[in-house]
Amino acid sequence: MRGSLVLAVVLAAGLAIGAGVAASLAWRHAAARPPEIGGYVLPEPRALGSFELVDDRGARFAPQSFAGSWSFLYFGYTYCPDVCPLALVELGEVKKRLTERTPAAATRFYFVSVDPGRDTPERLHEYVAYFDPDFRGLTGDLGQIAVLANAVGAVYFVPPGQDEKSYLVSHSSNIALLDPSGGLRAVFTSPHVAAQVADDFASIFARYGGTHR
Amino acid sequence: MIARSRRRPALALAGLAAVAVVAFAVAAEPAIRVLDAWARATPPGAENGAVYLKIVNHGGADRLIGARTKAARNAELHASVTSDGVVEMRHLDALPIASSATVELAPGGTHVMLVGLGAQLEPGEHLELTLIFAIAGEIAVDVAVVDPRGPPAAAHEHEHHAP
User: Fold this and answer.
1) Does the distance separating the beta carbons of B113 and A82 come in below 8 Å?
2) Rounded-to-integer distance, Cα A68 and Cα B121, Å
3) Residue pair A128/A93 in contact by the 8 Å Cβ criterion
């Protein structure tokens, strides 16, 4: 009788320890996994490499210029009549929502030109400021834009057989998110709905926002 | 006397019926109607714009084969197609309109692209667009220019709340 009681206690203790270890493993696993979003989150931010661009006010723009804020990047061009305005209106809505949702997060929004031949800083400025006075445009040398685009996984190309002046450009529809270190942290895949992007950013900020303050 | 007065209402009815038949023939709905046409207001200096609308077809199959407007150098049929995360604009030679179907041209999809705008499209303006169908022929459409950022009233209210 006493022997079986001891056995039961030992078994129970063993089970409890086992359960505790399993729970702690599961907890660690969950903590290590980035939040699920409409897109993907990198477990660690990834540096962009080096490039030099020009912003929509004509100022030199280096990778470290992204530092200090969470940056939303959309790649497009001002001759784009349909999806680019759509994306910028949605980003404007994201910005509005985040001022209430994550007031502690410093955010910036960039429209990166994939058509620097036509998108001068002046033209970009008129374009982005129309959607929101705080939006910024980036343009510059095609090769330098490619460095930034490659670093965040954006692609673009001019389909052949088009008019030299009124050509269209195919481009990524994703939104890249850089963290305040200036590294790539997440990519929001299209279609973009402001409420969803704002929710997703809030989860990312809740998980990783503290590490950069 | 009595007989004549009795005949008159019958004549009047016949006349009314004849008028009704004619009126019906005149007012009969055209096979294709274009509804809710709007263009996105454009930023200053923008070269291109887009028009969205709904085509309601009560008749047989037709095709939208072109468009023109005085507001732009060219009006072309385009579709934004997103596949594998890349958005591409495809030029359409014709947009099929199935019989008894409603075809919607909406943001992020099929649209009439305005190439080479003469002037910035400002909210509240209207522009005239002519759609060209293979069978129904030309249909003139009044297009309202709409602010993509939402109604200006909301922006005003926002400012009002600012400290």
Assistant:
1) yes
2) 37
3) no
Same domain? For A9 and A104 the reply is no
pLDDT, tens digit (0-9, with 9 covering 90-100), for B57-112: 999 999 999 999 999 999 999 999 988 889 999 999 999 999 999 999 999 999 99
Nearest CA in chain A to B113: A81
Instruction: State which residues form the domain around A164.
Output: 39-212
pTM score, whole prediction? 0.80
pLDDT for res B156: 39
At the fourth CATH level, the homologous superfamily of domain B32-148 is PCu(A)C copper chaperone (2.60.40.1890)
ipTM: 0.78
Claim to verify: residue A15 and residue A97 sit in the same structural domain: no
Size of interface A-B (CB pairs under 8 A): 79
pLDDT at A190: 86
Nearest by CB to A81, from B88, B113, B149: name it: B113
Query: What distance in Å separates the CA atoms of residue A89 and residue A100, rounded to the nearest whole number?
Result: 18
With CB atoms and an 8 Å threshold, state whether B85 touches A168: no
Number of separate domains in chain A: 2
A77/A156 Cα distance (integer angstroms):
11
> Measured between alpha carbons, how far is B141 from A109 in angstroms, rounded to an integer?
37
How many whole angstroms separate alpha carbon A177 and alpha carbon A112?
13
